[in-house]
Structure formats: C-alpha cells, structure tokens
Amino acid sequence: MSINTLARVFTPHGNIVYTPNDFRQTLRIVFAGMIALSISSSYNTQYGVFYVVYPVMLLSLVPVFNRHVARQFIFSAVLNGIEMVFIIGYLSRWPVIMTLVVFALYVMRFRFMSKGALFLFGSAGVVCQSTMLNFMSYPSSDWHTLLFSNVEASVMAVALSALMNYLIPDVEPRTRPPMIEKNAARVRHESLLSGTVATLIFVVFQISDLSDSLSALMAGILILFPMHYRGSVLSSLWRVVGVVIACLYILLVQLILYNHSSHMLLMMPLIGLGLAFSARLHVMEKVGAGVGFSSVTTIGIMFGQNLHPDTDLVFSDLYRIVSVTVALVATLTMVWLVHLILNRFEATRFVIEEQ
C-alpha cells in the first residue's frame, strides 16, 4: 500500500511505476506551488492559504488541463461566494435553517462527486465551502477580502495549471480513468453519508472556537472524498502519515533557517524540495488523496499561513499533528455511525463487497 511506496522512495527500486508523465506532473506541482507561495507572500494577505493550496490541489488531483476543468473550478468558486453571502449574511440569525441549507449544499456536491462527471466541481466546492464557512463565522474576518481572495486564488490556480501544462506537457496522451458504475442506492448512500458528516463537522466548528485548526478541518473533509466507510478509514491513515511527514519536514526547514526564514531565496529551494518529495510520492501512489497528497496540501497550508520565526514552531507542528489526529478519529466515528444507519434501509444501502 502507500506505506510500502513511502519506504521505497528512499531506496533503488524497479517495481514502482514512475512514468515520464508522472515526472512531468511532479515538476508541474513543484513549480506551481513555489510560484503560488511567492505570489501569496508578496500579497501579505491573511488568506494566503487559498493562493497556495488551490493550485497544488488542482494540479495534484487533475493531471490534465482543458476547458472543462477550468470551467468547473472557476464556476465552483464564484458559486460558493454567492452562497456564502446568502448563508452567513442572511441565514446566520436562524442557525437551524442555515444548517439545513449547508447540509443540502453538501449533499448536492457529494452527489456530483459520486456520479463522477462533475467530480472536480463537487470536490472543489466542498473544500471551498468548508473553508469559507469556517473563516466567515469569525467576527474578525473581512468578507470582501475573503471572497475576493477565494475567486482570485481559483483563477490563479487555473492559470498556473494552464501555464504548467503548456510549459511542461505530458510525453504521451493520458487515458481517461474508467467510470465506476454505481446503482441509485449507492449514490444516495455516498451523498447522504458524506453530506451528513460534513455538516456535523460544520456544526462543531461553528460551536467551538477552532479558528487555528484549518488543518484539522481539511483533514476531516478530505477523508470523506472516498464517500464510503472503508475508503475513509484508509484515507485517514494516509492523512495522518502525510501530515506527520510534512510537519516534521517544515519544522526542520524552520529550524535550519530560523533567523533567515524571511529570505525567499533561502527558503524556496527547501520548500521546493519538500514539495518535490511529496508530489513524487503522490504520483507514485496513484490513489488520489493518499500520503503524498496529504503531505503536499499540508505544506501548502502551513507555508500559506505564513509561519514566522518568532512563533513556537515546536508547539505549532505538534498542535497540528494532534488536532488532525483527533479530528480524524472523531470524523471516522461519525462516518461509521452514519454508515450503519444508512445501511439499515434498502434505498440507501451500500454493499461493501461491490468495492
């Protein structure tokens, strides 16, 4: 599995498939991440994490670029902005109604993901919706800056994806992954399971003051992407390993350049090295959101939030490792309970043997 792949990254091997296309995708992720981080740092915005995570996520999950990909990603960001203004601006006075609307939006997006044709639209919408609901729930948030940053970061992600695919194209055409045939009961199960748990996560983050737990929020949301219990268990294991690897590497980089971390010429090569290792692992795994993807996104989140040398870096890294682990355990517990409930009804039953 992914742990075996991780071990073989450090040793010569001939039984792991790493094609020229994989190498070029690795380069695209690394260069896009470094460019995005440079732009984010020059902006000095509190929402710089959008500018780093979106390009890395898009280039990692979608190894090709075309107009269909661009339309899905940008339209998702614009639609999310409109929805957030309506939800937070008008429905926040009625928490129950707001929660029901959030649940409906989550179910709709996970349904798109389950059916497959609009997977990117659904997945980008889930990530964007979760992040923006969290940011906008705090009084200190500047809505105009947040909404503008989200749309601008999405456009920048599409532009970087187009640029990287133009400058570093694939060696040979890629074949489309086969579509998974799903019956109506499975689609309903996946949509309701993921939508329910995502809504419960939303409620927890609304009730509790977890403004510094973006990594934990994203961990809980991303392990829902398989949209079934068994997949969530595997995804959570991969997520923990990826977060630990990325946090340890980031801690090492910050300690090496402790008094010089503001010098981009010194920082960028080390960031690029971390992105290269994580991206290479991601394309070798070929499992979607595995260890490598978790490591890449964690590096994007951590550096995108502009860690500074005057912060307690040991506490910061350990806090993220612990908070992510706690979030994953809690999320898996909710997934298991909802899975059991949905499987009691034939209309929403998911048969594990079909996987």
Q: What would you say this structure looks like, in words?
A:
It is a single chain. By secondary structure, this protein is mostly helical. Helix 2 runs antiparallel to helix 11, helix 5 packs antiparallel against helix 8 and helix 6 packs antiparallel against helix 7. About 1% of the residues have low confidence.
Biggest β-sheet description? none
Task: Classify the secondary structure makeup into a structural class.
Answer: mainly alpha
- End-to-end distance: 17 Å
Low-pLDDT windows of residues = 9-13
Task: Based on the model shown, name its key terms.
single chain; 355 residues
Q: Can you lay out the helices and strands and say which pair or pack?
A:
Elements: H1 2-9, H2 20-43, H3 48-61, H4 67-90, H5 95-115, H6 119-136, H7 143-167, H8 184-207, H9 214-222, H10 229-256, H11 264-285, H12 291-304, H13 313-342
Helix pairs in contact: 2-3, 2-7, 2-11, 3-7, 3-12, 4-6, 4-7, 5-6, 5-8, 6-7, 6-9, 8-13, 9-13, 10-11, 10-12, 10-13, 11-12
What does this entry show, briefly?
74% of the residues lie in helices and 0% in strands.
